[in-house]
Write a structure and sequence with these properties.
The complex is a heterodimer of chains A (115) and B (116).
Chain A: E1 3-5, E2 10-14, E3 19-21, E4 24-26, E5 31-38, E6 44-50, E7 56-58, E8 64-68, E9 73-78, E10 87-95, E11 104-105, E12 109-114
Chain B: E1 5-7, E2 10-13, E3 19-24, E4 31-37, E5 44-50, E6 53-57, E7 65-68, E8 75-79, E9 88-95, E10 106-107, E11 111-115
Parallel strand pairs in B: 2-11
Antiparallel strand pairs in B: 1-3, 3-8, 4-5, 4-9, 5-6, 7-8, 9-10, 9-11
The chains are: A mainly beta (115), B mainly beta (116).
Chain lengths: 115, 116
């Protein structure tokens, strides 16, 4: 069965420091991986995705994520955090080789960036 | 704004009543999804349409839930005989679909259902 784990409920970082939000996944085949962000009273917004190719993918708002097949991880990173990055972040996976189309989401990680 | 709109944004209903939610996807998107999100959890998949065909349903979608997408445009999600456990945020998403599943989905702001 497909699953996503976000081991940290909350990540706290000071503005200007690098941030990492962790995600590990489990699929039977090869994964498509996604990161979404949710701001209060707003819908989920797409940040970036890994489909194939370069393991380091770049997305919106200066975020990037690194796909590591051996560790089954897809951690979200940003070199310099902004207070405005404070939000709820979700990692999601889709198993390429399964017939279903559903994105499976993690429980989410709250990122808090202090000034 | 993602371009996916949901109506209503909030719904309070008494237990046992029926409710219906509407989703208008981004106009050129042929795929439409419904998800449910409860506090402290990520979105959970409910059902998926490609054009007007409902191609996939989750085990979470009990017999009290029904979804339609007539003419492959907007979609409705109906919950019959609501229960307190149905209280959640119901999210709709849409995406472009070709042969692969690598396109990202765009989400609406959701409909928050409270069953009292």
């Amino acid at each position: 069965a497909q699953s996503v784990a976000q081991p940290e409920d909350q990540v706290n970082v000071a503005e200007g420091n690098p941030l990492t939000v962790k995600c590990t996944y489990s699929v039977s085949g090869n994964p498509y991986l996604f990161w979404y962000v949710q701001y209060p009273n707003r819908g989920l917004q797409f940040l970036l995705k890994y489909i194939t190719g370069d393991n380091l993918v770049k997305g919106s708002y200066g975020f990037e994520a690194e796909f590591n097949k051996s560790q089954t991880s897809f951690h979200l990173k940003k070199p310099s955090a902004l207070v405005s990055d404070s939000a709820l972040y979700f990692c999601a996976v889709r198993d390429i080789e399964q017939a279903g189309t559903a994105l499976i989401f993690g429980k989410g990680t709250t990122l808090s960036v202090s000034s | 704004d993602t371009g996916v709109s949901q109506d209503p944004r909030h719904k309070i209903t008494k237990r046992g009543q029926n409710v219906t939610f509407r989703c208008d996807p981004i106009s050129e998107h042929n795929r439409l999804y419904w998800y449910r999100q409860t506090l402290g959890q990520g979105p959970e998949f409910l059902t998926y349409f490609q054009n007007e065909a409902q191609l996939e349903k989750s085990r979470l979608l009990s017999d009290r839930f029904s979804a339609e997408r007539p003419k492959g445009s907007f979609s409705t999600l109906e919950i019959q005989r609501t229960e307190q456990g149905d209280s959640a945020m119901y999210l709709c998403a849409s995406s472009l679909g070709g042969g692969g599943l690598n396109t990202e989905a765009f989400f609406g702001q959701g409909t928050r259902l409270t069953v009292v």
